[in-house]
Write a structure and sequence with these properties.
Layout lengths: L1 H16 L4 E7 L4 E3 L5 E3 H4 L3 E7 L7 H17 L4 E7 L7 H9 L8 E4 L4 H12 L3 E3 L6 E3 L2 E5 L4 E7 L6 H11 L1
Parallel strand pairs: 4-5, 5-6
Antiparallel strand pairs: 1-10, 2-3, 4-9, 7-8, 9-10
C-alpha cells in the first residue's frame, strides 16, 4: 500500500511540476463561496474581473506546503514591487483541521499580506476534492496511512474572466519572471 502511495505521489508531482507554464485556458473555475482566514465570506464573486493566483495547501503538511507558501509569498512581494493588482487564493485541502484561525496562524508565519491574499476553508473534504478536480483538474486525496493529504503543487494563473490561463511549478522551479510577464499580459 505504501509503495502505491509513493507511486501516486510521484505521478502527481510529475504531472504538476513539469516544465514551467502550461496553457490551460479552456478550464473555467467553477463557483465557490468559502470562508477566509479572517472568518469572512470569500468566493468567486470576489475575484470577478480580477487576475488571481490560486494554489492548494494545508497547515499540517510535512512536505510541500511550506515551500509553496514561501514561494507564493516571495511572488506576492515581487508582484507588489511591480505595482500589479493580483489576488492570491489558497484553498485548504484539509478543511476539517484548517479552521480560519489555524489558516491565519499558518499564513502569519510567512508574513503574507492579507490585503490581497485569502486562505480559504470551512467546507467539506468532499467539496474541495470535487472543486479541485472539476475546476483545476488536480487531485485532492487523504493519504490512507497517515494524517497527510495528497494534492497538486501548482500555482494557477486565473484571468479576469475566470479561466485558468496557465499553471506553474509551485515548489522548486518557480518561474517568477514568467508569471509576472503573464500577469502583465492579462492586465
Amino acid at each position: 500500500m505504501k509503495k502505491l502511495m509513493v507511486i501516486m505521489l510521484g505521478v502527481v508531482v510529475l504531472l504538476t511540476a513539469c516544465g514551467g507554464a502550461k496553457q490551460t485556458s479552456s478550464m473555467k473555475v467553477g463557483d465557490f463561496a468559502y470562508t477566509d482566514q479572517a472568518g469572512q465570506a470569500f468566493g468567486l464573486a470576489d475575484v470577478k474581473g480580477k487576475v488571481w493566483l490560486a494554489d492548494f495547501v494545508f497547515t499540517n503538511c510535512t512536505s510541500v506546503c511550506q515551500p509553496m507558501t514561501f514561494n507564493l509569498t516571495d511572488l506576492q512581494k515581487r508582484i507588489k514591487a511591480e505595482n500589479l493588482d493580483v489576488t492570491f487564493v489558497s484553498f485548504s485541502v484539509d478543511p476539517d483541521r484548517d479552521k480560519p484561525e489555524v489558516m491565519k496562524a499558518f499564513a502569519d508565519k510567512f508574513g503574507v499580506d492579507f490585503a490581497s491574499w485569502h486562505f480559504l476553508t470551512n467546507y467539506k473534504l468532499e467539496d474541495i476534492k470535487a472543486f479541485a478536480k472539476s475546476s483545476f483538474k488536480t487531485i485532492v486525496e487523504k493519504e490512507p496511512s497517515s494524517d497527510q493529504m495528497i494534492h497538486g503543487t501548482s500555482f494557477y494563473l486565473v484571468s479576469k474572466e475566470g479561466y485558468i490561463m496557465k499553471k506553474y511549478d509551485g515548489v522548486e522551479d518557480v518561474p517568477y519572471d514568467q508569471i509576472i510577464k503573464d500577469i502583465k499580459d492579462l492586465a
